[in-house]
């Protein structure tokens, strides 16, 4: 009887991990943004501290004549806050209250500009450059194929308040795939100083999605077709890999990562299962798989989430996912929480 039980349990786990869109309850977007010109990829949500209903969703449009689009919460393009003529911007992230000097702090977005082999940093919401035209990355790399930036995440340390950019690339070595730069005050802007190289790579495909859980002190990144890798965010804590999870939960590409903070250290890690058109949900503290959800997207690369009340349309926060039709999908995160918290029925 014990052997039969184990076989049935294994079959149940396999069935849950192989669910497709059609097997899951669909959650449709509340808003679909206006279309971009080229190819949407990755979003970042800025919460307006003075009026959360006037928050902004930034999203990359990935091409030689690319842009960082700014959308209001109705999905309309805010042209005066959109950054155009970027050279293949790929991923984007943001953090709050970054010191420029002893008296001035600003919110910032940072994104990779692949064809210029650099990252860009702008203040939000006034969209002023803080980087003197860009910070070159992977400058010491002798292999030209390893010099093209792709993924990025920002980390604002809760202990010493230093700000870091963690940058990945289109191709890279088996060790030291990611570089971590400290963004330090310099003049009226910032400078980027390399502080460490870390991160394993399976060699299977590429590493694009990077996310930071600042409160718990971890960096997560998607080693596509392999697993989600976990490291310490603080350089002083070392470069050892802490774990790899989700290896049997994705059809092929492991893509965008969003950290949903329901308490200071609790919540969910939501990761795009790109080819299935679903999202896998993991426990934020244990990294255990919870379930898959169907947000009716196609070929999602990047995603982001905030759990702040953004007004009557998004009282429990906002989840944003890229869709493969030059758009971003906006969801009242409360609907996603309700689906996550439903009891999973085992086959």
| Order of SSEs | HEEEEEEEEEEEEEEEEEEEEEEEEH
**Tally of DSSP helical segments:** 2
Number of domains: 2
Structural class: mainly beta
User: Any guess at the CATH architecture of the largest domain?
Assistant: 6 Propeller
Helix content: under 10%
Mean pLDDT: 94
Low-confidence stretches: 1-15
Measured between the Cα atoms of the first and last residue, the distance is 19 Å
What is the CATH C level class of the largest domain, in words? Mainly Beta
Strand order of the largest sheet: 1-24-23-22
Structure characterization notes:
Residues 17-340 form the BPP domain. InterPro entries: 6-blade_b-propeller_TolB-like, B-propeller_Phytase. GO terms for molecular function: inositol hexakisphosphate 3-phosphatase activity. This is 3-phytase. Residues 1-22 form the signal peptide. It is built from two helices and 24 strands. It has a four-stranded antiparallel beta sheet with strand order 1-24-23-22. The protein has a four-stranded antiparallel beta sheet with strand order 2-3-4-5, with no helix packed on it. It starts with a helix and ends in a 6-residue tail after the last helix. The protein is globular. It is mainly β. It has two domains: 1-50 and 254-347, 6 Propeller (Neuraminidase); 87-245, 6 Propeller (Neuraminidase). Mean pLDDT is 94; it is low at 1-15.
């Amino acid at each position: 009887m014990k052997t039969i039980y184990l076989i049935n349990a294994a079959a149940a786990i396999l069935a849950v991990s192989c669910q497709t869109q059609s097997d899951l309850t669909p959650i449709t977007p509340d808003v679909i943004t206006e279309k971009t010109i080229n190819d949407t990829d990755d979003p970042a949500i800025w919460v307006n501290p003075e009026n959360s209903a006037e928050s902004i969703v930034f999203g990359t449009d990935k091409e030689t004549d690319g842009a960082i689009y700014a959308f209001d919460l109705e999905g309309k393009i805010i042209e005066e806050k959109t950054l155009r003529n970027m050279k293949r911007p790929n991923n984007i992230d943001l953090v709050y209250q970054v010191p420029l000097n002893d008296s001035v702090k600003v919110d910032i977005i940072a994104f990779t500009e692949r064809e210029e082999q650099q990252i860009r940093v702008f203040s939000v919401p006034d969209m002023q450059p803080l980087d003197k035209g860009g910070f070159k990355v992977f400058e010491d790399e002798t292999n030209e194929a390893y010099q093209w930036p792709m993924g990025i995440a920002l980390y604002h340390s809760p202990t010493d308040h230093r700000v870091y950019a963690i940058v990945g690339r289109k191709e890279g070595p088996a060790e030291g795939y990611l570089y971590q730069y400290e963004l330090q005050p310099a003049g009226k802007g910032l400078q980027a100083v390399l502080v460490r190289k870390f991160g394993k790579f399976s060699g299977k495909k590429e590493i694009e999605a990077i996310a930071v859980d600042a409160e718990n002190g971890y960096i997560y990144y998607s080693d596509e077709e392999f697993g989600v890798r976990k490291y310490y965010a603080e350089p002083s804590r070392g470069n050892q890999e802490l774990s790899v999870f989700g290896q049997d939960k994705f059809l092929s590409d492991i893509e965008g990562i969003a950290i949903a903070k329901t308490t200071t250290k609790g919540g969910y890690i939501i990761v795009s299962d790109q080819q299935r058109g679903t999202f896998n949900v993991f426990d934020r503290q244990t990294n255990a798989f919870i379930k898959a959800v169907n947000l009716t997207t196609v070929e999602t690369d990047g995603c982001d989430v905030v759990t702040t009340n953004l007004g009557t349309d998004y009282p429990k926060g906002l989840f944003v996912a890229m869709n493969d039709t030059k758009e971003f999908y906006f969801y009242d995160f409360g609907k996603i929480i309700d689906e996550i918290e439903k009891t999973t029925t085992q086959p």
